[in-house]
Amino acid sequence: MTNFVRLSKDNDVAIITIDNPPVNALSPGIPDAISAAIDEINSDAAIKAAVIIGAGRTFVAGADIKEFIKMTSSGKRLATLLPLLLRIENSAKPVVMAIHGQAFGGGLELAMAGHYRVASPTAQVGQPEVKLGIIPGAGGTQRLPRLVGVAKAVEMCAEGKPIPAREAFDLGLIDRLIEGDLLAGALSFAREVAAKPAPKTRERKEKLGAAAENEAIFAAARATAAKKQRGLKAPLAAIDGVEAATRLPFDEGCQVEAKLFTECLFSDQSKALIHVFFGEREVAKIPDVPKDTPILPVNRVAVVGSGTMGGGIAMVFANAGIPVLLKDVEEATLDQGMGKIRKNYASSVQRGRFTQAFVDERLQLIEPVLSYDKFSSVDMVVEAVFEGMALKKAVFAELDRTCRKGAILASNTSTLNIDEIAAATSRAEAVIGTHFFSPANVMRLLEIVREQKTSKEVIATCMQLSKKLGKVGVLVGNCRGFVGNRMFGPYRREAQFLVEEGADIEAVDRALVDFGNAMGPLATGDLAGLDVGWRIRKEYRHLEKAGVRQPFAEDRFCEMGRYGQKTGRGWYHYDENRRASADPEVTALVRKWSAEAGIGQRQISAEEIVDRCVYALVNEGARILEEGYALRAVDIDIIYINGYGFPAHRGGPMWYADAVGLQKVYQRVCEFQRQHGELWAPAPLLKRLAETGKTFAEFDKEQVVAA
Ligand code: 3H9
Question: Average pLDDT, stretch 565-585?
Fold first, then answer.
């Protein structure tokens, strides 16, 4: 055996322990070692059955995803798991899989090749491969429908969501739930079944359904995938794989699956999604904040401001089980804020996201207050008052006065200077930005903004807290707009310029939606409120360079009281249900203003729309990276995917630029500079990388080496 796979015995039952921390991925060598252990068990007459179990926190989280990167970059074939799984299934001695933590991907495929599965009630099982742009590649699409039925298998393989052990037990995927000691329970189960004929999953047919019924399931699944996973190839391939299970003998089904798996693995989508998987973990690593930095307790918090953001943030804490004081100045405002929270929760219950009992518990955790009296008891405060420096400073001075020493004082500002806010306190080391995205209880991104003096403990605590809150925390520096909004400026600027130059409003949004974005840039402006940017622009107008072209349409809409969805008119017209329709008046206005400004009108292709908007992101991203406000290019990608609806299957703006080729991107940026002037001056880093034939991903690696 190897260090990673151990074979031991408990009298007449063998125990195979997979021990490959942290998540027992099936890295090279492990399948062979399990295979050898199965052979040994079968040649030992004293052994009647075997248990396969994972050491540490989990069963098996799947194939080793790092191997996929090696395969696709070297073009080498991936070692298949299928022979190991057949060897287990063909074992003369029954094999019981003992699952705790997760049996994901190849981990579940391994489990399904066993004759029986037992699990801790807290375990989860799933085929999450689609989230990596691939499909189960070791018989998952073939064995899963045989155990749980076609409809559930299609759902699990195409959507990738794991299911809890209890549901898996009800479906017949798990044979017994074991409270208490899993290994002891698995051993006694193994003894019970030792003398019985061992069922082989691949030979089962009773759940494979009838052709007509299955056709309807596949058609519905394809329609759902087209809508909910727009543009993604893997979900459709996963459905094809399960369909093959219903039409073909097991071995042939596995061949179809293998072909689909390989096509997906070598696709750009899979490379991008694997980049995102590792990126989401990479962003947690801060070079100057070591892993062992002490974490401060955050057991009780307060949120100042009960508006949309404050209320949403209070819900985020309550959902994580953290009691929260929600403060506002007037009773009526606070009542309104609490009313909105109740309404949001009620709609979550209606949609089946939460149970009423869960919501009742969460509401108990939110205590509305009108004063700072109880603030001395909290470990952290998140300020979410109206965006204005004077007000924020006043709030922070008050927090400094009322909060205990050591409490974290966070601001949810999306634009203001955190150093300046911190200066209003006597403890700048405790001040940090926690920039939630609207709606705070839904969006996964949390930009964590360090100011000059923020302590490492406060940074480490907020990074860890973000995970507890179900967010992806990304640490950024304190520049105007931080990372996300700073890049969003040029992106939305270009969208407006394109309309001012003759593009149709819908055509601009459609081009970006077809690219994969959740929403187009103009519709997003209407949703967020055009007045938000307008107010900020007014505050910073003195910083604008004279003679540099600025978009005019949104400022003029705002002057006319057209703020977007909330006023029923913006780039689009909205009915009382906020359904958008084209507004010919807007087009006419923009055409008139463009003529007055002497801006020539022309036909603009979807390709140019995408290049202008996305390369504006990339160029600004490159500046941010070089200035050190983002730690890595991948951090920018994670911000854009989780906070701005950038398509994950394109890997984020910086990964996308790498995929297009930085030389090509750079040339296009230079072309835009020639056409549109200095706003398009190429970022020095983009120029340098393009000229030296490098990528942002390589830049990231060099940073790691340098650190
Ligand atoms: C597959 O199985 C294909 C098959 O069909 C077979 C085809 C032939 N490989 O997430 P965490 C690392 S595809 C390599 O922070 P948690 C991760 O990068 C696979 N590494 O912990 C991190 O490293 P670091 C299908 C992996 O407790 C560390 O482990 N399976 C893998 O929050 C800890 O991870 C999946 O997609 C892996 N498979 O969550 C499951 N998994 O410390 C992917 C994790 O250096 N994994 N790492 O940053 C997960 O969903 C979560 O990791 C899990 C634990 C829920 C298991």
Answer: 94
- Is there a contact between 54 and 97 (Cβ–Cβ < 8 Å)? no
Pocket probe mutation, ligand 1, options 4, 23, 282, 469, max atoms within 8 Å of Cβ? 23
Rounded to an integer, the average pLDDT of 89-110 is 98
Distances (CA, A) of 631 to 454, 462, 467, 471, 474: 16, 16, 19, 18, 9
Ligand 1, atom 18, residue with closest C-alpha = 278
Structure tokens at 299: 């057991």
- Please say whether the dihedral angle defined by the alpha carbons of residues 668, 671, 673 and 677, taken in this order, is positive or negative: negative
Annotated catalytic residue, options 129, 155, 243, 494: 129
Q: Does any ligand 1 atom lie closer than 6 A to the CB of residue 234?
A: no
Dihedral through CA 472, CA 492, CA 478, CA 633, nearest 10? 60
Residue 282 CA: nearest ligand 1 atom is 48
> In degrees to the nearest 10, what's the CA dihedral of 289, 290, 292, 294?
-10
Q: Which atom of ligand 1 is nearest to the CA of 131?
A: 36
**Which whole number is the average pLDDT over 328-332?**
96
Helix spans in 114-228 (H): 140-148, 150-159, 165-171, 182-193, 211-228
Q: Could you read off the pLDDT of 462-485 as tens digits, one per residue?
A: 999 999 999 999 999 999 899 999
Considering the candidates 67, 89, 109, 494, report the single residue annotated as catalytic. 109
On the 0-12 / 13-18 / 19+ scale of CB atoms within 10 A, 639 is buried
Q: Is 133 in the pocket of ligand 1 (CB under 6 A)?
A: no
Nearest to 58 by CA among 7, 8, 104: 104
**Does ligand 1 have an atom closer than 6 angstroms to the CB of 114?**
no
Task: Determine the pLDDT at residue 427.
Answer: 97
Residue 129 appears among annotated catalytic residues? yes
Strand partners, 51: 15, 96
**Is the per-residue pLDDT at 1 higher than 60?**
no
Q: How far apart are CA 229 and CA 232, in angstroms?
A: 6
pLDDT, tens only, 386-440: 888 999 999 999 999 999 999 999 999 988 999 999 999 999 999 999 999 988 9
Q: Is 24 in the pocket of ligand 1 (CB under 6 A)?
A: no
* 101 Cβ closer than 6 Å to some ligand 1 atom: no
Q: What dihedral do alpha carbons 383, 385, 391, 397 form, nearest 10°?
A: -20
70, 20 contact by CB (below 8 A): no
- Answer whether 201 contacts ligand 1 (Cβ < 6 A): no
Which atom in ligand 1 lies closest to the alpha carbon of residue 68? 13
Can you give 416-449 as a three-state secondary structure string?
A: CCHHHHHCCCCCHHHEEEEEECCCCCCCCEEEEE
Residues recorded for the chain: 707
In this predicted structure, which of 154-158, 291-295, 530-534, 620-624 has the lowest mean pLDDT? Answer: 530-534
